[in-house]
Inverse folding.
């Protein structure tokens, strides 16, 4: 289905050890994480909190397993803090990823975000930006895009539950307000579906600007519980709202077809934050790899 060498397959470490909930997977080491990724048939990963920041050590560990770094999350605070604070942190992050060979930088605006608040309902308390905050966000992202371009890299914006850029309308506004040559989109199936958006519609509409893909599934019965019980994003994760492709409620067939028949080149990265005590990360990595092989032919 996919053209040879058009895409690479990776998986995020968040199924092994959770950055936002450090007690989830605290027993799992960095070496176990990347070894099981490679054993499951993946060749790339994003950066987790247990990954060494010394690039020589990290490169050696990955090369031993024929793995590479696809990208890493960056928290921007363009709506709530002076641009210079985000700029300084972004340059450090950019240079680290550039040295590791990554081509894209995952950016998410965390000003007013409730995704990290344990007791705040992720649906009811979703933040909304003012006109001035939208302006600061768009202008700031364009500047970050210019900084990324200095290293021949791209900023890919991560729409995310519990933030000011989550819905179809908000994604559209961000795309309209930013430079199409500087700011690109990270397409995350799980966040779109959980928010109530149409993942296929978003994919078709913004395909030329999509430069990074997160494949994440959602368990409908848990999502309903998150809404009904007014749970936070983090407690939803604990309950198991997310899972790997093929284990939840999203039909990925059309998504794979659209991507395969497009000019998309880059990473397809499985990302499913779960409690590893409930969902063995190696088992679920194997399950995801098998599903992608069956449905996407890769």
């Amino acid at each position: 289905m996919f053209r040879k060498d058009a895409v690479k397959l990776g998986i995020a470490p968040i199924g092994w050890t959770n950055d936002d909930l450090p007690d989830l997977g605290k027993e799992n080491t960095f070496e176990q994480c990347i070894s099981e990724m490679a054993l499951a048939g993946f060749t790339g990963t994003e950066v987790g909190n247990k990954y060494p920041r010394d690039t020589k050590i990290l490169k050696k560990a990955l090369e031993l397993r024929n793995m590479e770094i696809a990208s890493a999350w960056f928290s921007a605070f363009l709506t709530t803090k002076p641009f210079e604070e985000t700029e300084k942190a972004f340059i450090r992050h950019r240079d680290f990823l550039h040295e590791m060979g990554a081509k894209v930088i995952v950016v998410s605006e965390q000003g007013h975000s409730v995704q990290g608040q344990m007791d705040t309902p992720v649906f009811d308390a979703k933040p909304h930006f003012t006109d001035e905050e939208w302006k600061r966000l768009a202008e700031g992202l364009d500047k970050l895009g210019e900084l990324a371009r200095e290293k021949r890299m791209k900023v890919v914006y991560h729409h995310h539950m519990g933030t000011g850029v989550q819905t179809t309308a908000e994604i559209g506004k961000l795309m309209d307000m930013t430079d199409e040559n500087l700011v690109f989109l990270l397409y995350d199936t799980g966040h779109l579906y959980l928010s109530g958006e149409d993942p296929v519609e978003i994919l078709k509409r913004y395909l030329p600007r999509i430069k990074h893909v997160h494949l994440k599934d959602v368990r409908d019965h848990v999502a309903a519980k998150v809404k009904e019980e007014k749970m936070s994003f983090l407690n939803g994760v604990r309950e198991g709202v997310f899972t790997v492709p093929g284990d939840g409620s999203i039909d990925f067939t059309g998504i794979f077809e659209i991507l395969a028949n497009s000019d998309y080149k880059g990473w397809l990265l499985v990302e499913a934050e779960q409690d590893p005590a409930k969902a063995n990360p190696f088992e679920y990595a194997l399950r995801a790899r098998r599903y992608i092989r069956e449905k996407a032919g890769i």
